[in-house]
Design goal:
Blueprint: H1 9-24, H2 30-45, E1 47-54, E2 66-70, H3 74-82, H4 88-95, E3 99-101, H5 114-119, E4 124-129, E5 136-143, H6 151-176, H7 185-190, H8 201-213, E6 220-223, H9 230-239, E7 248-252, H10 258-266, H11 283-286, E8 291-295, H12 302-314, E9 316-317, E10 326-327, E11 331-336, H13 340-345, H14 351-357, E12 361-363, H15 374-388, E13 395-396, H16 398-406, H17 412-429, E14 434-435, H18 437-440, H19 449-453, H20 457-475, H21 480-487, H22 491-501
Parallel strand pairs: 6-11, 6-12, 7-8, 8-11, 13-14
Antiparallel strand pairs: 1-2, 1-5, 3-4, 4-5, 9-10
Helix pairs in contact: 1-2, 1-6, 2-6, 15-16, 15-17, 16-22, 20-21, 20-22, 21-22
């Protein structure tokens, strides 16, 4: 009596499921991995047709990069893909929940979809792979035997999808890090890029420009928004240039009062001013045979600008109070987050100095231009914060990462770094091992007009984004491709925003 259940075909298939799930972990290539995975789940569920797709970056819905079909003709596969933006698959991806229906033709959620009507779709089981947001989707259609997919089928498919997610994530990550998939791989081979995190095309393009400029012993002007890491990239240029073994000296021109700037930059002889009780070397002398980095150069006074121009032209300068020129062998890298051309027109910056610096300008991309790097940067800052403050290992939850990717960063990489560091410290103080979304963006109190006025810029921006996204996807009937087109966003980013803001489709 007790041995009968053990011999049931169903139980045997369940045992095989666990064995094959363990066996999938040895796969190193995606295509055979997907083929084995789909064949296994189709057999287990008794489905007639199956489709599995993994999402990577901004793959278009009509041409996914990683997919496999079972029991579908090429024409039917194309039909499934064309319906992904607005049908059953889109519902599973947007909500992160399994969709089960005995008949899509009779289900009020899907019966009006053109793909459902044209393909006469009956029993369907569609499960997301992974969550927050899903890495992909597993779509099963029509059972080989009469009837609908059972609760037991759903349980096994969800188990399969749950085990599949980390394996798929590992293979996708491996595929992205291959030389052909990482646009920064070329510059990383030729440059020393310690601490440079990211692999976005914008970052790759900038690094290629750095690779051209760094070996040349000429002055460089770095432009770009505040917080983009211009000081970090100035160090990269120095480390990859002919002066790499010599000093790298940094001076923020906006951090000192005008009365001290000249002596701080060029030095001063004893008695040159009230605080010069002895001979003082300036930053130019400290950077001899190396690189002098002047951040926020637009803050220099006109007189200091004139002396800097003389240094660039003659390789000589006069310390404050001195009558004899001092020769200098330095490379100058300057940075500005203001438009120097406008400063020249407004007579706030010397035109001749501007053109002297403008020979090799490099614009550092903003974080908005390299949004693909937010996740990797955030994880890097999280690890750095734990090390710096001697905290236990604390990780960012997937929900926190989605929230970071969805947020706007007017302060760029610097703002992202400070936000993550503060969240890590708060999590450690609460004894938590993960940073959740609430730890990154503590909700402002909601009440009256006065409370709304106290919203941070970040929170106010997020609320506007959530409202705009909700209105757009509801206007398009949750057609994600159409919503992405109207909002001028990548489809994958729209999915990220839906998950980050917790938007759900109205069942009414």
């Amino acid at each position: 009596m007790a041995s009968a259940p053990l011999s049931s075909p169903r139980l045997g298939r369940e045992r095989d499921l666990y064995r094959k799930l363990l066996g999938l972990d040895v796969q190193q290539e995606l295509q055979p991995f997907l083929q084995e995975a789909l064949a296994l789940v189709v057999e287990l569920s008794g489905a007639h047709q199956g489709y599995l797709e993994l999402h990577d970056d901004d793959d278009p819905p009509t041409a996914p990069r990683w997919s496999i079909a079972h029991g579908f003709s090429p024409e039917e596969v194309a039909s499934v893909r064309s319906a992904m933006s607005s049908g059953i698959v889109a519902e599973a991806l947007a909500t992160g929940r399994t969709i089960v229906t005995p008949s899509a033709l009779l289900d009020p959620r899907f019966r009006d979809r053109s793909s459902v009507m044209s393909c006469r779709i009956e029993a369907v089981l569609c499960a997301p792979i992974g969550d927050d947001p899903p890495l992909g989707v597993l779509y099963l259609q029509r059972r080989s035997a009469p009837g609908e997919f059972s609760d037991e089928d759903r349980e096994h498919v969800e188990l399969f999808a749950r085990h599949l997610a980390p394996l798929a994530d590992r293979l996708l990550t491996g595929a992205r890090t291959r030389p052909g998939e990482d646009p920064t791989q070329g510059p990383r081979v030729t440059l020393r890029l310690e601490g440079i995190v990211g692999r976005s095309p914008s970052l790759a393009g900038f690094l290629r420009e750095v690779a051209v400029v760094a070996p040349l012993d000429v002055s460089v002007l770095l432009t770009g928004e505040s917080g983009t890491g211009k000081n970090h990239f100035a160090r990269v240029i120095h480390d990859n240039g002919p002066r790499a073994g010599n000093p790298f000296v940094e001076l923020n021109c906006a951090a000192l009062p005008e009365s001290l700037m000249e002596s701080e930059l060029f030095g001063a002889l004893a008695g040159a001013h009230s605080t010069a009780t002895r001979h003082m070397d300036g930053k130019v002398a400290a950077a001899e045979r190396g690189t002098l980095f002047l951040d926020e150069i637009a803050a220099l006074s006109f007189f200091a600008q004139a002396k800097l121009l003389q240094l660039l032209q003659s390789k000589q300068y006069y310390p404050l109070g001195g009558s004899k020129p001092v020769r200098a062998d330095v490379r100058l890298i300057a940075a500005s987050n203001t438009d120097l051309q406008i400063a020249v027109r407004e007579r706030c910056f010397r035109e001749d100095l501007f053109y002297r610096l403008q020979v090799l300008p490099l614009r550092v991309p903003s974080l908005a231009e390299r949004r693909e790097d937010v996740k990797e940067l955030a994880e890097f800052f999280c690890r750095t914060a734990c090390t710096r403050h001697r905290l236990p290992h604390i990780a960012l939850s997937r929900g926190a990462l989605r929230a970071l990717e969805a947020a706007e960063w007017p302060g760029n990489v610097r703002q992202l770094s400070h936000t993550v560091e503060a969240a890590v410290i708060r999590a450690a103080g609460a004894g938590a091992l993960t940073v959740e979304r609430q730890g990154l963006f503590p909700e402002a109190p909601s009440g009256g007009v006065e409370e709304i006025r106290r919203l941070t810029f970040q929170e106010a921006t997020r609320r506007f984004q959530a409202q705009l996204l909700r209105e757009t996807i509801e206007e398009t009937g949750w057609n994600i491709v159409e919503a992405a087109r109207r909002l001028d966003l990548a489809r994958s980013h729209v999915y990220n925003l839906i998950r980050a803001f917790g938007l759900e489709r109205d069942r009414g």
